[in-house]
Design a protein that fits this description.
The chain is mainly α. It has one domain. It is elongated.
Length: 166
């Protein structure tokens, strides 16, 4: 493979990883905590956070497609163990993203409509819908954590692999 093409594809894959890692960490450690800290209503804070999450999921989807396409390209170029790991990790990221952004988030949105008021403290709101929402929120967060770990691993693999190791 032409070295310039190889370097460009590596750079594009690293950029996609970096953007995805960055938005996940920034949202989880800066945006969401700030929204919930400074807004008076948890219901309104959740609604705003949900809007941001939906927009972020679009960016994640684009990054996922870029990673999948670059992984496919490198796998077709050379069927090495590292390229198979890259491909598997890219697929894992895509499937996991689909799970939390399309399945879990949709269920949470439906529960938000039923619950309506999140300003009631959890210990006072014993409705099964609230418990289901809290469980789904925990699952969502765990799935995002899996993607952060997978992205960091993929970033490391891509950044440390030389063309002759492919």
């Amino acid at each position: 493979m032409n070295m310039n093409r190889y370097s460009l594809l590596q750079w594009i894959a690293l950029l996609a990883c970096g953007i995805w890692i960055g938005i996940l960490i920034f949202l989880g450690s800066v945006v969401a905590p700030s929204i919930f800290k400074f807004m008076d209503s948890k219901t309104q804070a959740g609604a705003l956070n949900g809007i941001i999450l939906h927009k972020m999921n679009i960016i994640e989807g684009i990054c996922s497609i870029v990673l999948l396409l670059t992984s496919l390209f490198f796998l077709f170029y050379r069927k090495s163990l590292l390229n198979w790991i890259r491909m598997f990790t890219s697929l894992l990221l895509l499937v996991n993203l689909g799970g939390y952004s399309m399945i879990i988030a949709t269920r949470m949105d439906r529960l938000k409509v039923t619950i309506q008021n999140f300003d009631i403290p959890k210990d006072q709101d014993t409705r099964p819908e609230r418990e289901a929402f809290d469980h789904l929120h925990s699952v969502y967060s765990s799935m995002v954590t899996v993607n952060v770990v997978a992205l960091l691993t993929l970033f490391f693999l891509i950044s440390t692999t030389k063309p002759d190791e492919e």
